[in-house]
From TrEMBL:
Source organism of this protein record: Segnochrobactrum spirostomi
PANTHER family named in the record: PTHR47062, SMALL HEAT SHOCK PROTEIN IBPA
Family classification: Belongs to the small heat shock protein (HSP20) family.
Every SHSP domain range: 30-142
Keyword Methyltransferase: no
UniProt KW keywords: Stress response
Statement: the UniProt record of this protein carries the keyword Transcription regulation: no
Protein name: Hsp20 family protein
Superkingdom per UniProt: Bacteria
Family annotation (InterPro entries): A-crystallin/Hsp20_dom (IPR002068), ACD_IbpA/B (IPR037913), HSP20-like_chaperone (IPR008978)
Length: 156
């Protein structure tokens, strides 16, 4: 079982802490989690991410992607192949069913998914609501306030 050091990712991403912790737990030596299919998680922008999964042999009809609450589930199940007229001498391309679950951070949404050259790309974006974005507050001093009151009184 391979173990990946994700500590550089902790320092460079915001909002995926729970996702990386879940990956650490799954890829731990005693987790016994299946390593199929292999995947990468990339940061493609300030608030943009991409999950890339190697799903050679699967078509878009064989794969389903579901987002529920803060969870992303990718399932793959290949339709049974008929081996009429041919004999498979060695089967090295995995076609077994799989299910991968990812825990998404708050306000992370799936924007798109594409399948090309045996790689499934899932694009994610962190969209923070306007009410939660930082805003600048103007600072006033009592001296400025009293001058404005006097100026308003003089104008009236």
């Amino acid at each position: 079982m391979r173990h990946f050091d994700l500590s550089p990712l902790y320092r460079s991403t915001v909002g995926f802490d729970r996702l990386f912790q879940a990956i650490d737990q799954l890829s731990g030596p005693d987790a016994g989690a299946p390593a199929y299919p292999p995947y990468n998680i990339e940061r493609t922008g300030e608030n943009a991410y991409r999950i890339t999964m190697a799903v050679a042999g699967f078509s878009d009809q064989d794969i389903s992607i579901e987002v529920r609450e803060n969870g992303l589930t990718v399932k793959g199940e290949k339709a049974a192949e008929t081996d009429e007229g041919r004999a498979v001498l060695y089967r090295g391309i995995a076609s077994r069913a799989f299910e991968r679950r990812f825990q998404l951070a708050d306000y992370v949404v799936v924007k798109a998914a594409s399948l090309e050259h045996g790689l499934l790309h899932i694009d994610l974006v962190r969209e923070i609501p306007e009410a939660l974005k930082p805003r600048t507050i103007a600072i006033t001093t009592p001296a400025n306030t009293s001058k404005q009151i006097e100026a308003n009184a003089a104008a009236a």
